[in-house]
Amino acid sequence: MTGRQAEVTSVAGGADDPLVAPHPHRQFRLELPDLSPDALEVETLACDEHAVDADYRFDVAVVSRQPLDARALLGAPARLALGLGDAASVIHGVVVAVEQIGEGDLGHEARLRLHSPLWLLTHAVHHRVFRKRTAPEIATEVLEAALPDGVRVEAEVGRECPQQPMVVQNDEPDAVFVQRVLSRDGLLLLVRQEADGPVAVIHDDLAQAVEGCLDLTYQRQSGQVRGGDNTVHALRYWDALQPAGVRVADFDPAHPRDNAPGLVEGTSGAGRVELFGQRGGGREASRALAGVHLAAWDAQREGVEIETACRHLGPGVRIRLSGHPDDAVNGEYVTVSASHHGDQAAALKGGEGAGRPTYRCTARLLPVAVPYRATPVERPVAGAGLLVGEVEGKESGQAHLDQEGAYRVRLALDEGDADTAEASPPVRMAQPYGGADYGLHFPLLPKTRVAMAGLNGDSERPVILGALPSDRQRPPVTTENPHHHVLRTPAGHAFCLDDRPDKTRLSLTAAKEAGSLVMEQSESQRRVALTTGEGSMELTSGGDLTVRSGGDRRVEVEGDYVASVVGDHTLRAERGAVTWSASDRLELSTDEGDLHQEAVEGDAEISAGGELRVEAGGGLTMRATEGDAAMIAEAGALDLEVDGDLALVSTGDGDIVIGQSGGLRICGNGDVVLDGQDVSISGDRITFTASDIAEN
């Protein structure tokens, strides 16, 4: 045994460890709590798969002096020696099953099933969320929480791993979750057997996970004699055609400008594997994942399988192979998996068991130059379903929204203690309509329960689908209003479509009854109402504004009514009359232009219960183009007062008459007649001038 080999095999408690003390007719021993190694004998042992990234299982048939207490043994630690003395090799395990067979010739027979400490993770199912953590950090936390105190956890990763925004374990066994988290970053997990106990090792290089290197010699067997423990007596090697490249594509809204596929190609192989939706993070994350997938294919392109009696092979153990006639086969390898089978029943029964081949190991090896990678574990089925969460916000009454309209949500399965609005990366909400700078978005408030789906089935990239009604979140439509289709905001704004069979109704209502628009229809009426209970109402049009009414139109104003028109204002009654009425005063004015009122075919009448004043800053003209014109003061005086001349002119053949029962008449031919019972003419001076003055 070389010194380098001793580094690998030094997993016993030392020379004084009774478990591995030499015995002339024993090859294996089993140590259980409160039982000395001599209290029971191992008849047979078998382990079909002792591999990297996997739990191992040893089925051990034993004989004991006294019946075993099965219940006391379940879950207890155990040590199984695959070799004694100089060949000492110890496997640490946990008792998970005990089968009592009965009493035989040598004592009480039983079968025990031992698993690695990682078995404890297979029955631990959790739901939890890890934020802003790397894969080694997450796996270390899970392993330390699940494994017993006697099992150490060591992360021996020689490169920097990316920090993940959020990693979700959703009803997923710890074992599957840990392997999924590690495999995506090209990391591996194995149990390293050490003298003071098992170590769960997180590593990025299988060839460096276990110190030392075993020297094994290939020796073709002849006859019935086999070589020693360090001899390989059977060897098979293979080469396999695998894909030449891997392309990973994805769409991640968090990296909208960096969603190009990641492509990694090898130097050999055929075909290309194309994957979609495996992981977010942009092109670099996709390319890294493609590299892990391709490395996993590379690890299956070639390999060696050996049969040996060496008892020290397990995942991560390196060997140096020599003596093979094909020198290309000789060289350094790392163990990926091994199976162990031992039988010393004949020796227990007094035969020559110690001299016959009682142990056989079959191991699968990978050349050291080829990095081992496990195929990344796909996301769990449970994580691809709907999730429930609660919107969070640091400010009262306002959810945390970023520049892209994304929220912060705390998953219902999250029992962590993250600060408010820090429980998730940005979570976007699916909208029924949207595009570049347009779309539809009704903001959610803190404490809103929402249903979410994973983007591309990935629960670690949730997308909000909508709010979930509950007693705490009563929906606007219940059994009380089953015909309503309602949109109501937290402030109280509401849009309601009422589809009752006998009376349909559409209403748009502002909060606190600030205003409403109602359109309703029934068998008896059709009505549209625009109402504001308090405050003002404004209608504004940048172009034309047309108001049409098929029936009557009424405008009722409790205060003042002001109509301001920049251009012309025309009020026309095409068939009926136009009536202006004022209980106090009716005033029509124009600041600069003309004021024109016209009845094209009918009469026009201006009447006042009190005084009627007509005033013009310039001239005043009253004209009757065809009929008569009359100014009548039925019960009072008629005053004409001017600052300049007063002229009464008739341009036709008619007379101008001033007076009643006589007076002054100016005839159409120019004659002037002054007629009255008593005519007085007085003045300081009176002058009559005529060609002829006649008296009667």
UniProtKB/TrEMBL annotation:
Signal peptide: none
Region annotation Disordered: where it falls in the sequence: 1-20
Pfam families recorded: Phage_GPD
Source domain of life: Bacteria
InterPro entries per the UniProt record, alphabetical: T6SS_RhsGE_Vgr_subset, T6SS_Vgr_RhsGE, Vgr_OB-fold_dom_sf
SUPFAM superfamilies: gp5 N-terminal domain-like, Phage fibre proteins, Phage tail proteins
Coiled-coil residue spans: none
Name of the protein described by the UniProt record: Type VI secretion system secreted protein VgrG
Organism: Aquisalimonas asiatica
Top-level taxonomy: Bacteria, Pseudomonadati, Pseudomonadota, Gammaproteobacteria, Chromatiales
